[in-house]
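Rotation project, supervised by the postdoc (A.L.). Task for the rotation student: set up a whole-complex structure prediction and record inputs and outputs verbatim in this book. Inputs entered:
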Amino acid sequence: MPAVQAENISYVYSAGTPFERPALRGVSFACEKGEYVGIIGHTGSGKSTFVQQLNGLLTPSEGRVLVGGVDIRSSKAALREARFRVGLVFQFPEYQLFEETVYRDISFGPRNMGLPADEIDERVREAAVFAGLSEAELGKSPFELSGGQKRRAAIAGVIAMRPEVLILDEPTAGLDPAGRDSLLANIDGYRDRQGAAVIIVTHSMEEAARRADRLVVFMDGLVALEGTPSEVFRHAAALREMGLALPAAAQIAGKLKARGVPLPDGLYTSAALRDALVGLLGGSYAS
Amino acid sequence: MPFITVENLEYAYPAHEDGGEAFTALRGVSLSVEEGEFVAVLGHNGSGKSTLARCLNATLTPTAGRVSVGGLDASDEANTFEIRRLVGMVFQNPDNQIVASVVEEDVAFAPENLGVPPPEIRRRVDAALRTVGMYEYREHAPHLLSGGQKQRVAIAGVLAMAPRCIVFDEPTAMLDPRGREDVIGIIRKLRDENGVTIVLITHHMDETLGCDRVYVMNGGKIEVSGTPSEVFTQVERLRSIGIDAPETVSLLYGLRLAGVDVPLSALTPDECAAAVADAYGKRVSPADSAD
Amino acid sequence: MLRDITLGQYFPGNTIVHRLDPRTKLALTVCYMVALFAARTWSGYAFMLAVLISAVAASRINGKTLLKSLKPILFIIIFTVVLNVFFTAGDDVLAHFWIFKITKQGLVGAAQMMLRLTMLIAGTFLLTYTTSPLALTDGIESILKPLAKIHFPAHVLAMMMSIALRFIPTLIEETDKIMSAQKARGADFESGGLVKRAKALLPILVPLFVSAFRRADELAEAMESRCYRGGEGRTRMKTLVMRPRDWVALAAGAAVISAVYALFRRLP
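Outputs recorded:
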């Protein structure tokens, strides 16, 4: 049974006003436990609207969402349950911090779940470790933290609910390369330890290529392409038409092939391209 | 004489009343920017690059050292207004630099502050909006525009001031790839067609391709500087201060580590592919390598 | 959702109503209000309704949009109507229960009050729908300018208003986002007593204030770097000029007031 599943979802923004516009037009999607899914598409393609359907923040005008096999609209309790099982981290989540201390802020979700005090404490400390926050930082005001630490604190606030599906909307936006890499590693750590599914909404083809098992490409409120990264990146022309670029490594590989270098298909990460070229050019690794 | 000269610039943020500690952001920075040059400043968050930007248009006054713009000393308060007119600033968050609720009114804001006569303001506003490709949106409300469009309006708002130099402080950090491409395209166009001197502060390597000079900052100092190919080929050194070399250079670097003879200085994807294909050609038919 | 609220929004256009000087439109709105409260007869209301409808038609604002925008204040209208029905003294008692009496005068008064309020609000909305907030503040600044002689900060006031108008949609959108983010962490804004609900607002209000201050800081910096230094020496791209059409419109406004005073003041 999929951890979260969407059946033929449609959604209209500002229904009944002059600003009415369809955001989703019949999207079906399923995600198993432990999977790592990348959702790509340019702004306005419906991808951010879609992830807000998965934990019931938005109500579809048609179709339904199942979490652990249960329709999240079947009862109020089911909807509440879905909020906690499908954790959603918004873009620039640091803007949602509000408590006096980082510790208190991270505990907001578990407190809303109605957990006993000792379990809340356990979860807060565990989430802090996953998010790479130190003990000292837990006692600080969230507003004293640096930009990158604030982001981590906000993500910890969702991780503390121990969601089976962790959805992050552009978690690395505005971070520098070092901050980006360590944050993605932290998310991997949570997935490995909890066996949780991770769904990342991203603009970065490099990030999508490097981490995800499966990519879902949104376009005009529909799923335009879906498959493993190598399946999706094979459709270079279609992606370009959607305003999406291939990962830099795939671009370079394409240019090399055009120049007659006999590279295999499906090279879309820097490491894979480098290894293929080392083979072709007769290099070898010292180590 | 360079248009902007920075000599041993130091800047310390004063201690905050509510307990925030004093913090030295710049520890002796020297650089110069020639008229018409495209200079990129790179660095991870907290390296001091945004503080440097704010010293270039007299938003911050140096704690020590000297900044001179067009021959004017930035520490002299009498010059503040003129320096701000000469050096425009485009900030990271497009939302928080748009003052008016109609696009063209916002673009008119700076020339209005300068006391430019109304017909001339109209002319400048229209020209600036055309330059950034937002003329059709002149009567729109900014909050309904995309991030990239807002940022283009912000650039028009600075252009209407008729500055000689524009400092861009991470202008694409909050934009999607399409918005980023548009903004970077406009920055290049401003330099090539309008002759505006550009200082681009960023942590996106690929945005700096085609610039004249790169300064890499770390810990409030300039760590590496030179032409893009001089700087980006120092892969190890950049990595040690938290900066990735461009994908192209990383690939070439990886190949060299494995003993493949390729040059490091091929920065664009095309140059990189050409360099690798060349190496492949030499290996497959060594005889052809003479030509 | 919050962002569906159209209260006080501007719909750009190029009709005669849009092109009138904001000062003219402000004056006309005042004329309209005065006439509306002077009108005391059904034919007077019909006359004012005709004035309103022709103004709406001339502005090409969708009538439905205008009516829909009344929704948020429906409560106030209903409240006033109910008060009028029950608390207007009169002799023609139609129904009587407990301490309440419904009189014919009460019903008539309530109906008139409802008409008057609805038309009043629709009229002022027409002003904000056809006048950009910026033009409106320019108009107010220009009207207040003579007061600068007695050190009244007309420019500062106008700048504050225009910045507020610029950021209201942004902050509404932000509130929406913060609410969603806290709901995703299980926050509950819909149940519990007054105290619990007030407390539930903290996770929204704190981030909203923090963000508003950050925006204010950044905006101030951006304004300074665009050479802002107050109203002194400032010019404007669009200077307000009264054109013949403005004088004609003002004359029409005066005519409406005079007509109402001459014809519709007393119940027949």
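Student's summary: The longest helix of chain C spans residues 154-184.
Supervisor addendum: Chain C has eleven helices and two strands.
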